[in-house]
Each structure stands twice: as C-alpha cells, then as structure tokens.
C-alpha cells in the first residue's frame, strides 16, 4: 500500500500515480515552449497498435495570439478556470490505418490517444506542472476551426500549468479542488469473469 497526496492505494505502487491529479487552480504564468514540448515528447512515446501513433496535439501557450481562440473552444464552465492555465492542448486521434480511401479504420485509435494523454499527465507532474483533461470542449467547433478532416476524432482538451491556491477559484470549484479517490480495485478488475456494476 502507498500513501501520498491524501490518497492511498491498495498495493505498493509508485507515489507518482497518487501525486498526479487534475486541479483547476492554475497560477496563470506563461510556460516556455520547450517545457511544453518536453511534456508532449514524452506523450508521443506512448505505445500504440501497430505503431500507428494516432495521437495529434494542437496547442496554444498563454500569452500567444491563439490563446483566446483556444479558451473559446472550451465549454463555459471550463473556460472559467482553464483560462488561467499556462497551455491548452486539444488531443485528436487519427481513426484510420494507411490510406483512408481504402476504408481501413483503427479500432484502437482512441485507446492509443488516451495512453498518450496518460503519459502527458505523468510527464507534466515530473516536470513540476499539473494537467487537467477535459471532455467539456466544443468538439465540432474544434474540428471546423482547425480544418480537421474526416477520419480524425477530437478526443479531449488538456489544461496545463502550475498549481495555484484554490482561493483563486469560484466557490463552486473551490469545493471540488481536492484529489479524487478511486473505487476499490475489486470493482474494476475481475479474475476470469466480467461483473456488471
């Protein structure tokens, strides 16, 4: 068992997994592009089916001319706090193998992109940053804004930055600003059978 960050695992895992969480309170300071590219470099080393590497990352740095456009592509409730991140990233996955005209789709493209997101989140922590993944983004508008063609899927957004005090958040978000816990492992891992729960 491992304890860290007000969390406790059932088995002896590396504390990094407990120290990674998804805060909303960010300092708003700018990030060097090289620091962000280090985090994205780690993400792109994730494993993928047939080494297709279907993930794509579209990013903007706080203070850049694209920042407002990226913030506007979040749903309103996420704009409220994510505007104080140091970088915003949209994760897109390529849903086909080889020549799309042949119609060969990749069954695991979203799974693989999710693995890359996990690597991104862990490297962010190792680099002194926090990453918050978001489903609350304007998927269709992102597809149009960046001219993302058919065969690619807008998966999620990521806000990345340094941790600020939760007092910078609205009252509603202050109450939510704690590392979340997990279900017991027995509710999600089943030996030799599947359990509906």
From TrEMBL:
<dbReference type="InterPro" id="IPR000415">
    <property type="entry name" value="Nitroreductase-like"/>
</dbReference>
<keyword id="KW-0560">Oxidoreductase</keyword>
<protein>
    <submittedName>
        <fullName>Oxidoreductase protein</fullName>
        <ecNumber>1.-.-.-</ecNumber>
    </submittedName>
</protein>
<feature type="domain" description="Nitroreductase">
    <location>
        <begin position="19"/>
        <end position="60"/>
    </location>
</feature>
<dbReference type="InterPro" id="IPR029479">
    <property type="entry name" value="Nitroreductase"/>
</dbReference>
<dbReference type="GO" id="GO:0016491">
    <property type="term" value="F:oxidoreductase activity"/>
</dbReference>
<comment type="similarity">
    <text>Belongs to the nitroreductase family.</text>
</comment>
<dbReference type="Pfam" id="PF00881">
    <property type="entry name" value="Nitroreductase"/>
</dbReference>
């Amino acid at each position: 068992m491992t304890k860290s960050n007000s969390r406790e695992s059932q088995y002896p895992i590396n504390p990094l997994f407990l120290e990674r969480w998804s805060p909303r309170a960010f300092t708003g300071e700018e990030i060097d592009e090289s620091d962000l590219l280090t985090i994205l470099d780690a993400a792109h080393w994730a494993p993928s089916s047939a080494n297709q590497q279907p993930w794509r990352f579209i990013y903007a740095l706080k203070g850049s001319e694209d920042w407002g456009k990226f913030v506007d592509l979040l749903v309103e409730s996420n704009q409220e706090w994510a505007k104080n991140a140091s970088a915003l990233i949209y994760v897109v996955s390529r849903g086909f193998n080889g020549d799309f005209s042949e119609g060969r789709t990749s069954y695991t493209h979203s799974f693989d992109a999710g693995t890359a997101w996990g690597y991104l989140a862990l490297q962010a922590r190792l680099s002194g940053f926090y990453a918050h993944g978001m489903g609350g983004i304007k998927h269709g508008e992102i597809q149009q804004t960046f001219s993302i063609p058919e065969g690619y899927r807008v998966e999620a957004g990521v806000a990345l930055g340094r941790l600020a005090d939760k007092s910078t958040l609205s009252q509603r978000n202050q109450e939510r600003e704690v590392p979340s816990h997990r279900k017991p492992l027995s509710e999600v891992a089943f030996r030799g059978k599947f359990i509906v729960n």
